[in-house]
């Protein structure tokens, strides 16, 4: 079952597994317009930083259907309009902007191609972004598994698996590789309030792959650590600043602070496309604010009085000093400093 799939040839469309329906329903969304793709990203039908980037790259192609018979200037105008539109779907995951930027650079470099040829070339690029993400997931898994001790309990937060990427995932790929290597790990998945990506998605993926796991509420993490059940924490990231400060799903910072208090290593696993070296520190990372209904009406049922004020930041930033290592497809960055990151990530 594929999370993201391009159906057909250049005139095809994007098919996404609708993650808002999991774990109870497996349904797919056929995206035929940029509006379909924008909506799917915004409402989290497709989510997870790398998956958002891959979806946006394909989303550009569906927005270029009506301009292949025109001249290149008209094509470029529509292309840039679609790119700007999709870039507005979510603010925090830098992979979205990274993928769109890559498509724009290609269009600039191939200015001699006519619209039909350019659209074909852009589809090839989107497929390359998709394939590369799969390979990056595998490499992250290989490097990360080395850090996981035999028999470890590993806490993770949010969902970072095949649903969040084009491959086996980022943090989840580390867990998957350690499991495949026979390390006899046990995963503790935080439920991840308010949208329950851990409960709905990570729990589902653990079962799919037969990885031993236990679902806990976010508020239980400290106690589970205190009980000695956790030997490592591994999460993903949506954007990593030049100094290593890492934005990820709200609650990640809490897990990092708790890990430090219990002397447990806290790792972030992310591909190079998640690094934003243009930002010196995490203070500059834009944090998505989401609708209060996600807190007051968790999955439909009203759980709070409507008159209460709410605050719903979707991400937080874990300071670099809490991170024992950044697991990338190019190796593990340790210690997490601006200098070490620049050595591995700057091309
Ligand atoms: C490989 S995914 C890394 C992150 O994107 C993931 O941990 C996360 O925070 C996803 O948030 P979401 O709001 O579900 O898109």
TrEMBL record:
<feature type="binding site">
    <location>
        <begin position="47"/>
        <end position="49"/>
    </location>
    <ligand>
        <name>substrate</name>
    </ligand>
</feature>
<feature type="binding site">
    <location>
        <position position="90"/>
    </location>
    <ligand>
        <name>substrate</name>
    </ligand>
</feature>
<dbReference type="GO" id="GO:0019509">
    <property type="term" value="P:L-methionine salvage from methylthioadenosine"/>
</dbReference>
<dbReference type="GO" id="GO:0046523">
    <property type="term" value="F:S-methyl-5-thioribose-1-phosphate isomerase activity"/>
</dbReference>
<dbReference type="InterPro" id="IPR005251">
    <property type="entry name" value="IF-M1Pi"/>
</dbReference>
<feature type="site" description="Transition state stabilizer">
    <location>
        <position position="158"/>
    </location>
</feature>
<feature type="binding site">
    <location>
        <begin position="248"/>
        <end position="249"/>
    </location>
    <ligand>
        <name>substrate</name>
    </ligand>
</feature>
<comment type="pathway">
    <text>Amino-acid biosynthesis; L-methionine biosynthesis via salvage pathway; L-methionine from S-methyl-5-thio-alpha-D-ribose 1-phosphate: step 1/6.</text>
</comment>
<keyword id="KW-0028">Amino-acid biosynthesis</keyword>
<dbReference type="InterPro" id="IPR042529">
    <property type="entry name" value="IF_2B-like_C"/>
</dbReference>
<comment type="similarity">
    <text>Belongs to the EIF-2B alpha/beta/delta subunits family. MtnA subfamily.</text>
</comment>
<feature type="active site" description="Proton donor">
    <location>
        <position position="238"/>
    </location>
</feature>
<feature type="binding site">
    <location>
        <position position="197"/>
    </location>
    <ligand>
        <name>substrate</name>
    </ligand>
</feature>
<protein>
    <recommendedName>
        <fullName>Methylthioribose-1-phosphate isomerase</fullName>
        <ecNumber>5.3.1.23</ecNumber>
    </recommendedName>
</protein>
<dbReference type="Pfam" id="PF01008">
    <property type="entry name" value="IF-2B"/>
</dbReference>
<keyword id="KW-0486">Methionine biosynthesis</keyword>
<dbReference type="InterPro" id="IPR027363">
    <property type="entry name" value="M1Pi_N"/>
</dbReference>
<dbReference type="InterPro" id="IPR000649">
    <property type="entry name" value="IF-2B-related"/>
</dbReference>
<dbReference type="InterPro" id="IPR037171">
    <property type="entry name" value="NagB/RpiA_transferase-like"/>
</dbReference>
<comment type="function">
    <text>Catalyzes the interconversion of methylthioribose-1-phosphate (MTR-1-P) into methylthioribulose-1-phosphate (MTRu-1-P).</text>
</comment>
<keyword id="KW-0413">Isomerase</keyword>
<dbReference type="InterPro" id="IPR011559">
    <property type="entry name" value="Initiation_fac_2B_a/b/d"/>
</dbReference>
């Amino acid at each position: 079952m594929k999370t993201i799939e391009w159906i057909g040839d250049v005139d095809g469309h994007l098919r996404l597994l609708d993650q808002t329906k999991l774990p109870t329903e497996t349904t797919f969304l056929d995206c035929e317009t940029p509006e379909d793709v924008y909506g799917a990203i915004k409402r989290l039908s497709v989510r997870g930083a790398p998956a958002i980037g891959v979806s946006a790259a394909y989303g550009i192609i569906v927005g270029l259907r009506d301009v292949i018979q025109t001249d290149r200037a008209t094509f470029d105008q529509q292309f840039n309009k679609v790119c700007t539109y999709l870039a507005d779907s979510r603010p925090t995951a830098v992979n979205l902007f990274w993928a769109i930027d890559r498509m724009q650079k290609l269009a600039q470099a191939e200015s001699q191609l006519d619209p039909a040829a350019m659209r074909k070339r852009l589809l090839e690029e989107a497929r390359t972004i998709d394939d590369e993400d799969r390979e990056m997931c595998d490499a992250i898994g290989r490097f990360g598994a080395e850090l996981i001790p035999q028999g470890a309990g590993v806490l993770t937060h949010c969902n970072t698996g095949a649903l969040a990427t084009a491959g086996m995932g980022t943090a989840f790929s580390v867990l998957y590789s350690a499991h495949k290597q026979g390390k006899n790990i046990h995963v503790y998945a935080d439920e991840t309030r308010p949208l329950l990506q851990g409960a709905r998605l990570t729990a589902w993926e653990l079962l799919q792959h037969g990885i031993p796991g236990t679902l806990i509420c976010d508020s239980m993490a400290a106690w589970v650590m205190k009980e000695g059940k956790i030997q490592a924490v591994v999460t993903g990231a949506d954007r990593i600043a030049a100094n290593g400060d890492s934005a990820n799903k709200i609650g990640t910072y809490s897990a990092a602070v708790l890990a430090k208090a219990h002397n447990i290593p806290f790792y972030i696993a992310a591909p190079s496309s998640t690094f934003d070296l243009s930002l010196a520190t995490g203070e500059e990372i834009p944090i998505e604010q989401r609708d209060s209904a996600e807190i007051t009406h968790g999955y439909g049922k009203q759980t709070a009085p409507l008159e209460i004020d709410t605050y719903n930041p979707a991400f937080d930033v874990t300071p670099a000093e809490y991170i024992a290592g950044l697991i990338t497809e190019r190796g593990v960055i340790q210690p997490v400093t601006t200098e070490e990151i620049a050595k591995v990530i700057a091309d």
